[in-house]
Amino acid sequence: MDYEGDFFASYDSYELDDEKTELSREEKVRAVLKAMKPRQAELLRLVYLSHYTHERIAAEKGVSRPAVTQQIRTVEAAFKKIFEKLF
Question: What is the pTM of this model?
């Protein structure tokens, strides 16, 4: 193989290794979300996957923003506890 071929071949294997690591983390997150109460998991999905603001969640749920902020803190603690228990 020529120099460029060697370079791109090593880059391709590097990318695959990164993807495997990322999938492993993604699988762990999915497992934790599945172990959580559905309402808790949905709140985390809204914040971290859909990028909803606390204000938007509060408006949609008909509660105050501080209430949503407190719920998020509680749910994040639950996520961490389950994650540590499972992994």
Answer: 0.69
